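Hi Q.,

Before the meeting this afternoon, I wanted you to have the cytidine-5'-triphosphate prediction in hand. No need to reply - just skim if you have a minute. The sequence and ligand are here:
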Amino acid sequence: MKQKNEITFDLILLAAGKGERMGFEKQFAPINGQPIWQIALEQIRYYPACNTIIIVFPKTAPIDRAFFDKNSALRWVYGGALRSDSVWNALQYYNTLSVKSPYIAIHDAARPVVDHAVLDRMMDKIREGEKAVIPTLNASDTIKKYSGRHITETLNRDELVLAQTPQLFEADIIQTSYRNIFAKQTENGRNGDEYNPSDDSSLVEANGTKVAIVAGSPNLRKITVKEDFDYLKHLLAQHFETRTAMGYDVHKFRSWTTNDTSHNIKICGVEVEHDYGIDAHSDGDVGIHALCDAIFGCLADGDIGSHFPPSDDKWKDADSEFFLRYAMRKIQKAGAKVILLDVTIICELPKIGPETQRMKNRLAEMCNLPMNRISIKATTSEKLGFTGRKEGLSAFATATISLPLSQE
Ligand code: CTP
Ligand code: MG
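Predicted structure with the ligand bound:
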């Protein structure tokens, strides 16, 4: 939940280039099955201050409308011939939004690895009162000017920085800076290079606003030529770690009473008829409780009891679906992806086998995951122990996730 008065931004994600230097539209090239523009989107969309994201695609791109229909915070527009045309189109679209953030970030999808620490540094500058902030790297090579085959000037390296994206601006300032150059278009076209700036902050500078700098990141390197693509593959492989954690839960059976309106118990979100009810504070869904603990375990973030204390009456008879959706949101906010959720239910009765397909369907729906990332198994305990005596049931779960390595 965003706090009131918190500074937020809408993001323009530029993916409308032709990739001429690469030889193909690099933003659609997949790495580990995901196109580069989508890697960039996933890296940035859960940053807390980020509201609406406008993705700019080439006019020839097939648009997955179902994907956008599902996500109201994600919008798309077509771009134009130059990068600045693409930004301009997106800015026009931004104006039509009914809810606008006071700041606009502009980012190249061709820089898909976005460290949130860079965004944190930029947001700090905005809080200090800056109106335009960009991430930069110090120039480690000496930069020279040349003409023809000879150097004409050596620049003082100590005065140089390399500009990256995302670049963050007060909305009015970036709008005005763009309007000023685009307003000069005539029916006969455009004159001059000003329509083709290599970054957005140069227009803001030209318009008289001071642009603040923060430390950028080598991970923000732009994918321009083939070697950058190989570097990105390597970087992404190193950028994520795989974590596995387990969860366990037990609930006791109880006799049904006249207050019970059905003789169904909940397991993995599915109602199953049973001779006994479940003695629990919430709906007593062992499968989901074990799964939530496995997810919290992967994030090293407590357990279900620490997030939803049983001492709090708010969670009495709570639907466990709420807990699981909460745990999945934590995964998304961490920029992590689920590789596999695996649950084993242990009980003599009810019979779980015939229900596993329904359970997989329910969990897939709650977690917004494909079925091949969810596994449900069941076993009896050969009539041994409390499950064998039919005093209750238990569940083990393991979650395996891929999580971005932290910057520490
Ligand atoms: N971009 C865009 N619209 C354009 C040109 C570029 O949205 N008309 C985007 C690119 O998709 C990229 C970012 O701006 O994410 C930076 O541009 P660049 O690296 O130059 O990409 P391309 O223009 O695609 O590459 P090239 O210049 O080699 O054709
Ligand atoms: Mg280009």
